[in-house]
Amino acid sequence: MSVRNTVKSIQDIMRKDVGVDGDAQRISQLCWMFFLKIIDDQDQELELTRKGYHSPIPAELQWRSWAADPEGITGDALLGFINDTLFPTLQDLAHTARRSELDEVIAHRARVVRSVFEDAYNYMKSGQLVRQVINKINEVDFNDLADRQHFGDIYEQLLNDLQSAGNAGEYYTPRAVTTFMVQQTDPRPGELLFDPACGTGGFLTSSIRHMRAHYVKKPADEQLMQQSLRAVEKKQLPHMLCVTNMLLHGVEDPSFVQHDNTLARPYISWGKADRVDIVLTNPPFGGKEEDGIEQNFPKQFQTRETADLFLALIIRLLKTGGRAAVVLPDGTLFGEGVKTRLKEHLLQECDLHTIVRLPNSVFKPYASIGTNLLFFEKGRPTREIWYYEHRVPADQRAYSMTRPIRLEHLQACADWWGGAERKGRKESEVAWKVDIEAVKARDYNLDWKNPHAVAEDLGDPAELLTRLNAAEARAHDLREQLKAILQEALLR
């Protein structure tokens, strides 16, 4: 059976269980089970390749011990083991004493396991159905490169399903968008790359794929790349999905994905040692932070709007010469008050060289608001801003779940970009530039409409009104004729 069919059959089994309600719970349930299988497959490989390595998970709780045998425990015994032994133990998994570099690796992996399970939950109520799911998962060998790559595609589709899973959609950025942002930012092994609101890890996986395709030539490059990744996620479900995603993409130690709120740390405490070369992120927008979080920020930036706080922090976190690509809503571009002060700070500290304007439908069905991709570099003030208006392909009215944005849709923008130095850019019907003095004159309003857009000709208003009146008169005549016909029929 193919990996895709295996995953589909797992989902079909889970739909029979009365304890699992909806896509978000089903994906959460699948995730902790996949996580245990993936990390155990990885542990077994490490035990063979690294002398002295042992899994941080106690032997009796390793997947190979209780789940690998298709005739193993099932029913109430399996359910009791999961709820009363497996979860409590992994949620309180002890650190290994750190006496060597190998012990450090084991300790980090123990921390990953504990962080995944600290807020995880077993939703399934039928031990028999749990056993059926486990047996299906065992059909995938995560140490087999072909299986793992194929499953990576399936896992990506599972994450994509989050877009229709209620509020869980906020954790997922369309992969065409993350890939494009990574492609234009061009991260390299050794550059510290940070996503302060990483969700399910889309920017991280896109960056890993990009660097492996272009820059990772030997094991030392791979090690350098993995050691340079940084990420934080506030909520349990996306954190668990992200950690599993990292394991699936061959990251040996995903403990760099912290389960925390980046904004909860005082702004001033982020010092030089915390500076990074690259920030790639889609911070949550439209939401409000909990009371008191804004007090962590300087007075001029204090707000409960999450996206604004993240933008202020991103500017601080970048090294001189560091670069960022950030997804932000239209409201950030035209907003006033704190938003104005924040944009003034951004344009003074950074070169905001490009804004790619996306149509409202890119994030459907989770959100239907205009979004923008802001690309900037820290260390010199902005002199001019280039805008590029991405349009939905001519053969469709909008992006949707069945016809989402794809990387090839953004190729025209990549072609226009002008390489790493952004040279040779030209204005066109979808591209224009704005001088910084014009931005200042409009009180740092960045919401500049396309000056080359041709307004749709809707016709002469007087003529349209005449045609409307004629159509209404015609409709009235038809109603009277129909009324007469019906009355005549009733009298017969």
Describe this structure in words.
- The protein has helices spanning 3-15, 22-49, 63-66, 75-91, 101-117, 127-137, 145-161, 175-185, 202-214, 219-227, 236-248, 306-317, 330-334, 338-349, 411-417, 436-441, 461-491; strands spanning 193-195, 229-233, 257-259, 276-281, 318-329, 350-358, 371-378, 384-389, 431-435.
- It is an alpha/beta fold.
- The protein folds into three domains: 1-142, Up-down Bundle (Ferritin), CATH 1.20.1260; 144-454, Vaccinia Virus protein VP39 (Rossmann fold, 3-Layer(aba) Sandwich), CATH 3.40.50.150; 458-492.
- The longest helix has 31 residues, at 461-491.
- It is globular, with a radius of gyration of 27 Å.
- The mean pLDDT is 89.
Characteristics:
alpha/beta; 9 strands; 9-stranded mixed sheet; Rossmann fold; globular; Ferritin; 46% helix; 492 residues; 3 domains
Instruction: Output the CATH topology of the largest domain.
Output: Rossmann fold
Number of strands: 9
Helix fraction, binned, reads 40-55%
Q: Report the sheet with the most strands, covering strand number, pairing sense and barrel closure.
A: 9 strands, mixed
Taking pLDDT < 50 over at least 5 consecutive residues as the criterion, the unreliable ranges are none
CATH level 4 superfamily of the largest domain = Vaccinia Virus protein VP39
Distance between the termini: 69 Å
Mean pLDDT, all residues: 89
Order of helices and strands: HHHHHHHHEHHEHEEHEHHEEEHEHH
**What amount of the residues lies in strands?**
5-15%
Tertiary shape: globular
CATH class of the largest domain: Alpha Beta
CATH architecture of the largest domain: 3-Layer(aba) Sandwich
Structural class: alpha/beta
Radius of gyration (CA) equals 27 Å
Strand order of the largest sheet: 3-2-1-4-5-7-6-8-9
Total helix count?
A: 17
